[in-house]
Amino acid sequence: MKHTSVVATLLLLAPLTACGSAQAGDGSTVTVTVGYQSRTINTVTAGTLLRSLGYFEKELNSLHDGRTYKVDWQDYATGAPITAQMTAGKIDIGSMGDFPLLINAARGKQLGKPTHLVSVTGYNLRGGLNTIVTSPDSKLASLADLRGKKVSTSVGSAADGTLVRALQRAGIDPDKGIEKLNQQPAVGASALTAGSTDALSQFVAWPGLLTYQGKAKALYDGAELNLPTFHGVTAREDFAEKRPAVLEAFLKAQAEATDYLHDHPVAAAESVAKATGLPAEVVYLYNGDHGISTFDPAVKPQLVSALKQDVSVLKAAKLTGDIDVDSFVDDQYVRKALGAGYAARLAAAPAASASEVWPKGASATQSFKTPSELLAYVSAHRNGIRGAYVPDATTGTLWFADKAIWVADGDQLLPFVAPETARAYVSAHGGARVITYADALERAS
Are the C-beta atoms of 387 and 404 separated by less than 8 Å? Predict the structure, then answer.
C-alpha cells in the first residue's frame, strides 16, 4: 500500500480531463462513459469485475442498431467526483455508496440535471460494510473510549453515517464529543498508521485491508446498527431517456457479472485483486461466497427504506436538504433488462453466514458448519492456509479468523469482530470468557 494517498489523489484528478459521453460522436459512433471506483469493491459488478469480463461491450455489440459503441471507463477514489462529472454531463452511468447516492440525487436535482438509482451492486442488511478501526496497539476498547479522540472519516460517506449513528447510540455527540477529521480513505489510513488519528471509520475495503496488513484492529462492527448499507448504480435521466437500450445493456451485463461472481467467487476475487492491487484475501472477505457483501442488482424495498432513513443524517450535517427518494429510485430499466428473472432476484435473501478456509493453491474454498470445525482444520494445516474466515457470533459479519476476538463458552468457540461485542456476550453468559486465537486453535485441535 505504498504511496496510497498519492494514488488516490491521481485517481481523483486524472479522469477530469476526459470528456467522453453518450452525447459525443457523429451519430454512428457512441461513447458511453462509466464512472466507477475500482478499490470500492462493493461495486465490482458495475465496475472493476464488469470491466475485466467485457460483458458490457458484448451487450452493446449485440444491439445491432447501426451504431458503433465505445466504453470509456473512468476510475475514481470516491463517489463525489463521479457526481460532479455526471451533473456536468460527462459521465453517463456511475456507481457509489448509499450516502453518496443521496448526494448524487440532491446535486442532480439542484442543478437541473436529475439522476436516478437504477440498480444495486452489493449490500449488507445489517450494515456490516462499514467498520471503525483503531491501531493494533491502541488501548481503545469501546465506542465510549472515543470521547475526545481524533477520528478520521470521509464526511458524506456511508462510513461517516455509521460513525454518527454509532456515537449517538453510545451517548456521544458526533459533532462535539470527538474531533472528526474529514479525510479521503487513503489519507485516513495513513493518518491511523502514523498515529495522527485515534480511529478510522471507513467503508469497504479499507477496514479489512488495514486489519489484514496488521495496521489496524476492529473497534466497532457496523452491523451492530442493524441498518442496511449498500452501493448502487446511478444514471443521468437525460441519458436514460435518450439511450434506454444502452442502459438496459449495462444492467444486463451487470447481472451477468453478478452471476459470474456467485459462480466463481475465488476467480472473481483474484481478478479484482489483480486490477486493484488489493490482496485477494481481502477482496474475498467482502465479495466471497459468504462474504460481508451480498451482490444482487434488484432494488430491494429494505434498501430504499434505509436510503430514506439516511437523509436525516445528511441533513443534520448540512450536506443536503430534503430528498425525494421515491422519485430518485427508478427500477424500470433493470426490471426490463432482467425480465421474468427480476422477481426472483428481488425476493432472494442473503446467503447464510458460514466459516470458510481458502487453502493455499486451491481454486475453491472449503466451508465448515461451525467456527470450531474451521479452527480444527486450520490447526491441522497451519502452513497450508491462504485465508480463514469466520462469522461474528452476534452480527454474522465475516472476519479474518486470526484477527477475531475469540470467546470460549463451554465447548463452543465463538468469534467476534469487535471487543465490545465479545464482552457483551461474556457478560450475558456465565462461564464464558475471552481467549487468544492461539488458545482457540489449541482447544479445537
Answer: no
